[in-house]
Every structure is written in C-alpha cells, then in structure tokens.
C-alpha cells in the first residue's frame, strides 16, 4: 500500500539563479578518483547549474527547462533523529525528482532521461529533475568502478555470467549489500540533504537497497519508485518490498517480482520507457528513406552494435552484404550499419568495398528515423533496442546477449514470433537474405511486433508516478509533498 502525501514541501533556502532540469553530469562534474568525499555543495551546484548534455551512448534526450524563477538547496544534513519535529512550512516550488542510475550500459540513463522528458512535457514548469549515477557520484570508492567494470565484463561473457550468479545467491548478495551500505549510507544522506527530493525514482537494479534503508530512518520519507528496464526477465535486486511502486514492462517480469515478495498492489505494467522520438507515430517510410538518402524501392537492413558498437557488428555486416549480393543481387537490399562509439570499426567499415549499398554510421541521435526507414533489424538483445524496434514494427534478428541479464530477452523475441536468434554471422546472413526475399513473412512479423510495441509506456508510467506527489490533482507550480528531512 502506497503512502499518502499532502501538499507542503519542507522549508528551503532560495537561490536566485537560473534553474534547469538536470540530466547527465558532464566530465567536469565527475569527482576525481583521488577525491571521493561527497559534498552537499556538489549537489547544490548541480541543481543550480545549467543543464548539461547526456554523457551516454544510448540517448540524446533533452530534459526540458524548468520555468520557475528560483532554485533551492538545503542548508542542513540528513540523519535519523526521532526527537526532531517535522518541518511543514509551505513554499512555492517545483517538485524535485531524483533519478538513480548507474552507467552500466547506456539503457538506464536513456530510460531516466525519457522519464524526465515526459515529466517536463506533461507538467511543464512544475518539475526539477536530477539524474545521478548512484555508485560513481554518491557512493564513491571502491564502487565507482562499476561503469568500467561493466564494459570489461560485457566483453567477457563467462566473467559476466559469474558476476550475475554471484548477485543472485542470497548470501553473497547480502554480504555485498552490507559492505556497500557501510560505505555509501552517509553519502546518500548527504545527497538527500543537498537535493531534498520529493520523489526518488530508481532505474537500475543496484539502486534499491541503500536508498530504501536510508529512507526507512526518515520520519516521512519521499515516495520511492522502481522502474524495471529489463524486458524478458529480471535480476532479484530490482525488487524491494519497501518500494512504493514498481513498474514492470511484461507479464514475465511481473511474475518474477511477485516471486521476489512484491504485492500485486505495488506493481504496475505499462511497458518499457523509451526515448521521446518513439512516442509519436513514424512518418511514411518512403519519405524517411528519401531524407536519409536511402533507395525507396530497396529493402533496408539495419545492423546495430549498441552505444559501444560491440557484438561482432563488422563480421555480421560483411556476411549479410555478401549473402544478399550472391542470392538477390546488388539491389537485393541496402544496409545501414550503426557502429556506436566504436570509431575504429566505423573507419574500417567505411573504407571497405561493398557488393551492395551500405551506409556506415557512428553514434546516431535519430535512431527512430533509421528504424522507421528499415524493414528489419539485427542487434544484440538489449531491452531498449528491442522495445524501440517493436514500436517501429521491425522483425528482429538477435545476434548476441549478455548471459543471465539478456538471455530472457531472446526467449521473449523468439517465442513472440517477431524474430529469431543466432550468433553465427553466416547463419544471420542466411536468415536476413531469406526474410528480405519474402515480403509476406516480413509483413507478418512486423504486425506481431507492432502488437507488442508500447509507444505510450513512458507517458503511462509518468502519469502513474505523478499521483504519488499529487501532480495529477494540482495546478501551477505550488504543489509539493510533505517530506521530513530531520537534522
């Protein structure tokens, strides 16, 4: 059962600076490894400073601008003290939302940015959001290695599988959580004191246990919401019984949440949050192809390597081009190869002589348009890419997955009848050429994909979250919630 909140944010100190919705921290704001001490001033400066661009390979979603005339920061720390009385003085201010992520892959920040953008679009001028990497910007050493560690493990699947299973085993997970809590508990309290959120939204499986443990010590804690961004399955760390609400994208994930102890009343199922470009219907395919300099009459195969350009993209693209040429001729299909941040791969493929028409791209900000112009997609089994491909009605050929985390996504795609899976570039090439040669099959799979697509999921999630802080029942920017930061 969710907690009830009344309008009345805590007393704040106004700072007459130009506020803005916060997104990813710039490189200059990240703390040097040699200086890991968290200071409230750091977060206060984040709140007051102009919005910084996303530092992620997954999304370029703007957060929007806050139209209020003040920004606020606190001048006292957060700690548990039952003897202190609540501070209920009223002040006109936007609702402050803290999004907790970790940049282990680009999908978590992309989801947080999508939610932040939807909040600003639905409730303009009434939201001040902050997206923070919990482990690097709050907890610090020795846990600030998570993003780099993720990249290393993602390139070494056996090690990733071992780490995944380590986190699933209750005893080892509990020991790790206790150590992390000993390191990060006080730092998170300082972060709360600095930003003083009315609402906390977790968009990562490892940003539940410390925040919720801290919130239990507050007299009237802000609502805590989890938005699960795994599609076919989910790690147990996503699901904490103390969360007010937990949003799941599929029936499969809902069942896992229930097995982990969550109640039906805590769960909401709308789909996966996706980037704003996918919230609207795509333009007519021929028009998009013309804009992207693709041949309108030729089928388009989109080969995606993710934000980091990993997953054997080069070998797959070469195999597809050769097979299409040998089976269907030079005009049998055209390829678009997205290399992400892998500049070396982009240069290598750009300098290659291709038997069919091929466009090689690096990191792109208009993935929605490339998907709208395509007839099928080849990608690793990342949940965000799958969700976006379904919205655009694309049949999917999955070329790889992270053991444990992404394996259920493969089952979700194959059992839904929208795609297939193979790691072998030659088999992938044969599948693609067969599909391209069979327009009726492509159309059938495309229809199934559109049925599964959830373009309104981001809006639906945000509207449901907004009920916790009464945004659905107020006007102007004077609404808030009663949240007690004791000190």
TrEMBL record:
Per the UniProt entry, what is one GO biological process? glycolipid biosynthetic process
Give the top-rank taxon of the lineage listed in the UniProt record for this protein.
Eukaryota
Give me the ranges of the annotated region Disordered.
1-34, 48-74
Instruction: Give the EC number.
Output: 2.4.1.46
Checking Pfam families in the record gives: Glyco_tran_28_C, MGDG_synth
According to its UniProt record, where is this protein located? Plastid, Chloroplast membrane
Which Gene Ontology molecular function entries are recorded, alphabetically? 1,2-diacylglycerol 3-beta-galactosyltransferase activity
Where is composition skewed (Polar residues) in this entry? 48-66
Gene Ontology CC terms, in alphabetical order: chloroplast membrane
In this chain the Glycosyl transferase family 28 C-terminal domain maps to: 300-421
Where composition is biased (Low complexity), the residues are 14-28
Q: Which residues form the Diacylglycerol glucosyltransferase N-terminal domain?
A: 108-274
Residues spanning the signal sequence: none
What does the UniProt keyword field contain?
Glycosyltransferase, Transferase
- Chief location of this protein within or outside the cell: plastid
Which family, according to UniProt?
Answer: Belongs to the glycosyltransferase 28 family.
What is this protein identified as?
A: monogalactosyldiacylglycerol synthase
**Organism expressing this protein natively:** Gracilariopsis chorda
């Amino acid at each position: 059962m969710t907690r009830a909140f009344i309008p009345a944010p805590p007393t704040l100190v106004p700072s007459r600076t130009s506020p803005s919705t916060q997104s990813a921290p710039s490189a200059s704001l990240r703390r040097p490894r040699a200086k890991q001490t968290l200071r409230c001033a750091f977060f206060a400066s984040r709140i007051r400073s102009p919005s910084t661009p996303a530092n992620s390979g997954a999304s370029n979603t703007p957060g929007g601008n806050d139209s209020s005339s003040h920004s606020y920061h606190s001048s006292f720390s957060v700690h548990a003290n039952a003897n202190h009385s609540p501070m209920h003085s009223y002040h006109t201010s936007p609702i402050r939302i803290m999004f907790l992520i970790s940049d282990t892959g680009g999908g978590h920040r992309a989801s947080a940015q999508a939610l932040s953008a939807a909040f600003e679009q639905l409730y303009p001028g009434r939201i001040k959001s902050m997206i923070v990497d919990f482990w690097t910007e709050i907890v610090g050493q020795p846990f600030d290695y998570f993003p780099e560690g993720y990249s290393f493990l993602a390139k070494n699947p056996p090690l990733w599988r071992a780490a995944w299973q380590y986190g699933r085993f209750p005893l080892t997970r509990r020991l790790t959580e206790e150590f992390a809590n000993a390191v990060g508990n006080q730092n998170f309290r300082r972060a709360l004191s600095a930003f003083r959120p009315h609402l906390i939204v977790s968009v990562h499986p490892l940003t539940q246990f410390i925040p919720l443990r801290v919130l239990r010590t507050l007299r009237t804690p802000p609502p805590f919401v989890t938005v699960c961004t795994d599609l076919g399955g989910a790690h147990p760390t996503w699901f904490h019984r103390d969360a007010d609400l937990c949003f799941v994208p599929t029936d499969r994930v809902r069942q896992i949440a229930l097995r982990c102890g969550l109640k039906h009343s805590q769960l909401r199922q709308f789909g996966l949050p996706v980037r704003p470009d996918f919230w609207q219907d795509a333009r007519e395919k021929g028009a998009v192809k013309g804009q992207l300099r693709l041949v309108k009459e030729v089928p388009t195969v989109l080969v995606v390597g993710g934000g980091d350009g990993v997953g054997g993209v080069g070998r797959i693209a070469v195999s597809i081009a050769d097979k299409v040429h040998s089976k269907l001729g030079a005009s049998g299909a055209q390829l678009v190869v997205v290399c992400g941040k892998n500049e070396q791969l982009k240069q290598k493929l750009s300098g290659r002589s291709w038997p069919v028409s091929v466009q090689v791209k690096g990191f792109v900000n208009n993935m929605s348009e490339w998907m709208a112009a395509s007839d099928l997609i080849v990608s690793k089994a990342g949940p965000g890419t799958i969700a976006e491909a379904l919205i655009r009605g694309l049949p999917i050929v999955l070329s790889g997955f992270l053991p444990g985390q992404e394996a259920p996504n493969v089952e979700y795609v194959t059992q839904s009848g929208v795609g297939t899976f193979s790691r072998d570039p030659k088999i992938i090439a044969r599948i693609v050429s067969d599909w391209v040669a069979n327009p009726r099959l492509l159309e059938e799979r495309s229809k199934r994909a559109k049925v599964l697509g959830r373009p309104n999921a981001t809006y639906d999630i945000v509207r449901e979250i907004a009920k916790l802080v009464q945004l659905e029942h107020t006007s102007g920017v004077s609404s808030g919630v009663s949240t007690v930061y004791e000190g």
